[in-house]
Amino acid sequence: MHIYAFGSICRGDISVDSDIDLLALVKGRDSRLSPGKFSIYSYTRIKELWDSGNAFAWHLSLESRLIYSADGVDFLKSLGEPREYTAGPEDCARFRDIFEESLQSVRSGSPSLVFELSTIFLALRNIATCYSLARTEIPTFGRDSARRIGSRSLNISDEAYQLLMHARILSTRGSGEGIGDVELSALMPELQKCRCWIDEISHEVKSDG
Prior knowledge:
alpha+beta; Four Helix Bundle (Hemerythrin (Met), subunit A); four-stranded mixed beta sheet
């Protein structure tokens, strides 16, 4: 077994509302590991991600730290650098579809508003990460990824961005104040800006592909 920390705690931008992301590599089922606390992968699957240049493989390669090794070896480091990331067009299209589905649900008055807004935030973050992997020298994986890609950063109001981030925290932790009609009304025009940004970003990544 190998256990790694990754994400904000390894980047050094952890805050009071940050999760601590943990990865467990195992050969088979291990009852000691809770899927609620660990991202659990087999060694075979991780190697497949490495060999395909998957975005998550790059995330782990650049932002993970070994916590425990049963054999004294840093397994991820032993894999070397993942293959070149080439799945940008497909990944952007997939996250665009996720964004669009959640946006339509919000517009139709979804009873799961917080979940849909959380999903929108996640889609924006992941599209920015895909863009950074495909078109920049320094990939970004954090929750502020959409605001860390230079001139192509998402240009929406701070209030809208913070509201989407708040929805993400509400959805994952179930604590904090809810989102009211007034806040949602102000957010809707900003979500249209997000859609335009996604189209522009996705087109650039596709052009490179």
